[in-house]
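G., the chain you wanted modeled:
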Amino acid sequence: MIQDTSAVEVAGEEDKETIGIKELYTRLRAMILDGVYPPGTMLPQRALADSLGVSRTPLREVLRMLQAEGLIEASRYQRSQVAAFEPEALDALYASRIQLETLGIALSIPQFQQQDMDELNKVLAEMQHIHVLDAWEEPHRRFHSLLVSYAGQHLQATITSYAERSERYVRLYGRLDPSGRSTSLLDHQQIVQAYQERNEEAAMQLMARHLTRTALTVMAQMAPEYEPIAVRKALQLVRADSPLPEAMTKPHKEHRQKRDKAIPPRNVTM
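Predicted structure as tokens:
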């Protein structure tokens, strides 16, 4: 009996094409996030396809994926360009993340089990041993995902989508503030502590401040004249603009003191 292998061959080709699109998406996305193609850069399909060594068919699909993520904008006549930095978009995105992720925390903490805490501590330990920004992204994403793991499928999907759209700002934050990752680690440690204590309010406030720090750092460098009204209002709504207990703020104070001691005083001339 002769088997018809045509269907298998077609399926195999489709799998290869899918893998090729995923690899191209990951590659081009990283180039945009790393600033190889800065905000506002035009991306002519033919020239881009030639430079990447790919055909235009998978490239068009990847450009659509990046557009859905907010990294690319399609202008008139279907010309693509890297999305420009818009302070209003950053403000709205991080205000939304503050609201959604603090809600996810409020829904998840009451249902957290010991195995969840073990996994959270495991990812935190992994992050503590990372010294390269590129290696930070994946465990950092897992950490935030674990925090809202009981928020429900639809809310989790929205939170994940917004977090992915924030990657360009997270990377920019890492480049603008060399000490940002150590500060971020302290944030994560405090959030884990709040989870261990099942302190829902503290965890929500810590997350809100953690997200705000990234937004305001990037904003101060890229658009210092812009007032992030949405982010500040989101902080107020979760009461994260009020003081935290001393036990929660002590690690940050100690970190700032060590950092300040390590910075030599400037010579001031009159």
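The CA atoms of residues 33 and 167 lie 7 Å apart.

Shout if anything looks off.
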